[in-house]
Amino acid sequence: MPDFLLLALFGGLGVAAITGPLGAFVVWRRMAYFGDTLAHSALMGVALGFLFSINLNLAVMVCCVLLSILLVALQKQHWVATDTLLGIMAHSALSIGLVAVSLLDHIRIDLMEYLFGDLLAIAPTDLLWVYGGGSVVLILLWRLWNPLLAITINEELARVEGIPVTRVRLLLMLMIAIVIAVAMKLVGILLITSLLIIPAAAARKLSTTPEQMACIASVLGMLSVTGGIWASWTFDTPAGPSVVVTSLLVFLILYTLPARRSSS
């Protein structure tokens, strides 16, 4: 197997391991649109990274975190409905990012690489970001698993039990921001949310507990990454979109299978 395929496979499997359990919370808390908003803001981070000559992953992470804090602050003002606010911020952030990138006339930027990813062109340094950032996310998830479940079930009850709901919610947003930053080059800004949602949604069909759903989502994500890379290599298709299409096929197969009948 060529070296670049091995790098793509290791990078994709690392991202899938993170997006599985984190995507479960995105599905449970119905945060898909929020994930899109953060992902769209990543292009602003790319522009800032090139403008100030700083690491793009770090710039994207900072931009996503700042947007998360701004979103929480605006939600408390109750100016508009949350879905309206997310729609405004998502498309505005993407448009500002596109305009900012176009103004960097002294730098040539391949927008397609950032919008749709380039899984087959990742470097060893990208793997360091994936596994380093992934380790941070998985450790945070392990430490915050019970509080996250509590605020997902009932935020008011969790607050009564002494759980710092606002802090836990911000940490969840921080974890999503880290995942978007490390996975941006692999599947792209416009497709990263699909890796959070589709495997987790498919895993719901096979699981009976939250822990099962998180683990199965990671396995299905890894299966999608492997199948997508194989399809990209075999049929000469874009790697990132091929991974998402494979994930969709897994989802459709699982949801079209007849439900198992319980034995009497």
Automatic annotation (TrEMBL):
<feature type="transmembrane region" description="Helical">
    <location>
        <begin position="85"/>
        <end position="107"/>
    </location>
</feature>
<feature type="transmembrane region" description="Helical">
    <location>
        <begin position="213"/>
        <end position="233"/>
    </location>
</feature>
<comment type="similarity">
    <text>Belongs to the ABC-3 integral membrane protein family.</text>
</comment>
<keyword id="KW-0472">Membrane</keyword>
<feature type="transmembrane region" description="Helical">
    <location>
        <begin position="170"/>
        <end position="201"/>
    </location>
</feature>
<feature type="transmembrane region" description="Helical">
    <location>
        <begin position="6"/>
        <end position="28"/>
    </location>
</feature>
<feature type="transmembrane region" description="Helical">
    <location>
        <begin position="40"/>
        <end position="73"/>
    </location>
</feature>
<keyword id="KW-1133">Transmembrane helix</keyword>
<keyword id="KW-0864">Zinc transport</keyword>
<dbReference type="GO" id="GO:0006829">
    <property type="term" value="P:zinc ion transport"/>
</dbReference>
<keyword id="KW-0812">Transmembrane</keyword>
<keyword id="KW-0862">Zinc</keyword>
<keyword id="KW-0406">Ion transport</keyword>
<dbReference type="GO" id="GO:0010043">
    <property type="term" value="P:response to zinc ion"/>
</dbReference>
<protein>
    <recommendedName>
        <fullName>High-affinity zinc uptake system membrane protein ZnuB</fullName>
    </recommendedName>
</protein>
<keyword id="KW-1003">Cell membrane</keyword>
<comment type="function">
    <text>Involved in the high-affinity zinc uptake transport system.</text>
</comment>
<keyword id="KW-0997">Cell inner membrane</keyword>
<keyword id="KW-0813">Transport</keyword>
<dbReference type="InterPro" id="IPR037294">
    <property type="entry name" value="ABC_BtuC-like"/>
</dbReference>
<dbReference type="InterPro" id="IPR001626">
    <property type="entry name" value="ABC_TroCD"/>
</dbReference>
<dbReference type="GO" id="GO:0043190">
    <property type="term" value="C:ATP-binding cassette (ABC) transporter complex"/>
</dbReference>
<dbReference type="Pfam" id="PF00950">
    <property type="entry name" value="ABC-3"/>
</dbReference>
<feature type="transmembrane region" description="Helical">
    <location>
        <begin position="239"/>
        <end position="257"/>
    </location>
</feature>
<feature type="transmembrane region" description="Helical">
    <location>
        <begin position="119"/>
        <end position="142"/>
    </location>
</feature>
<dbReference type="GO" id="GO:0055085">
    <property type="term" value="P:transmembrane transport"/>
</dbReference>
